[in-house]
Design goal:
With 286 residues, the chain is α+β, with helices and mostly antiparallel strands. It contains six helices and 18 strands. The chain has three domains: 68 residues, Uridine Diphospho-n-acetylenolpyruvylglucosamine Reductase, domain 2 (2-Layer Sandwich); 126 residues, 2-Layer Sandwich (Uridine Diphospho-n-acetylenolpyruvylglucosamine Reductase, domain 3); 76 residues, UDP-N-acetylenolpyruvoylglucosamine reductase, C-terminal domain (Uridine Diphospho-n-acetylenolpyruvylglucosamine Reductase, domain 1), CATH 3.90.78.
């Protein structure tokens, strides 16, 4: 199988730039390749990844199979009154496509890194918009290679989470189309991007927002700052001065990133009795 790689180095598949090797790394280009593979490896555990924007791979690598969807999962088109896009399509690309077609309510996608599949799985959002506002259907393949279509009304969307199973491989999304003014859409995208650039670091090795905002009077960044963790450093890993819910890695191991995450959880819990939940997905063998 040409797109199955053994002992694949994972560091290039995470924005943190760290990680050991995957025992098996599979990149199907078509849905048929994916289905056929799943039928053969039913005894294997697997993890599906996108662009790696919110993933931390552990230094010891991963004994589970890593699946990263290939070129057919990055297509985008309009079908009747919906946008259909592959789960591997970048959110920023969908935002640009919507702008070109005069479709509104997808401007927020221009400011969120990563792929559409990961976005719907965690109900990603910003500036008052979330995936639940734009998704009509989720097309997927389960671990037994069954193809599924799930309507959005049957998905429980919460804050940065859904009830979609972890081992569900999202293949395509059907998105709602609302026609709007290209001029207004472009203005909104520029406004969102300006606000993001002023508030969040860029051009660094990071995983995006480290922690979800807890159900309390404090934002995650406030708890990090008030607990003093914004000044803590493990190796070359520390929180960004521009936004202390973003971790910067200037050349350290995955263990240093994970140590800073765990240290922050402990400190915030000790001082505020609040348990921070990571927004970053940690993958690999301990």
């Amino acid at each position: 199988m040409n797109n199955l790689f053994l002992d694949h180095n994972l560091s290039s598949n995470s924005w943190f730039g760290v990680g050991g090797k995957a025992k098996k790394f599979f990149t199907p280009d078509t849905e048929n390749e994916l289905v056929n593979y799943l039928k053969k490896i039913q005894e294997d555990n697997f993890v599906t990844i996108g662009s790696g924007s919110n993933i931390l791979f552990r230094d010891k690598g991963c004994s589970d199979t890593i699946i990263k969807l290939g070129k057919d999962f990055r297509k985008i088109d309009i079908i009747e009154d919906s946008i259909i896009c592959g789960s591997g399509t970048l959110k920023s690309f969908v935002s640009k496509f919507a702008l070109d077609k005069g479709i509104e309510n997808m401007e927020f996608l221009s400011c969120i890194p990563g792929t559409m599949g990961g976005g719907v799985a965690m109900n990603a959002g910003c500036f008052g918009y979330e995936f639940k506002d734009i998704v009509k259907e989720v097309h997927a393949v389960d671990k037994n290679a069954n193809k599924l279509i799930i309507e959005s009304k049957n998905i429980n969307f919460g804050y940065r989470k859904t009830n979609l199973p972890e081992d569900l491989i999202i293949t395509n999304l059907l998105l709602r189309v609302a026609k709007g003014s290209k001029e207004k859409i472009k203005r909104k995208i520029n406004e969102f991007k300006k606000n993001k650039n002023n508030a969040q670091p860029s051009k660094i090795k990071t995983g995006g927002s480290t922690f979800k905002n807890p159900n309390s009077n404090y934002k995650a960044w406030e708890l990090i700052k008030k607990s003093g963790c914004d000044k803590v450093q493990f190796g070359q890993v520390k929180f960004s001065k521009l936004h202390c819910n973003f971790i910067e890695n200037s050349g350290s191991s995955g263990q240093d990133v994970e140590d800073l995450i765990n240290h922050t959880i402990d400190e915030v819990n000790n001082k505020f009795n609040i348990i921070l939940e990571p927004e970053i997905k940690i993958i690999g063998d301990k």
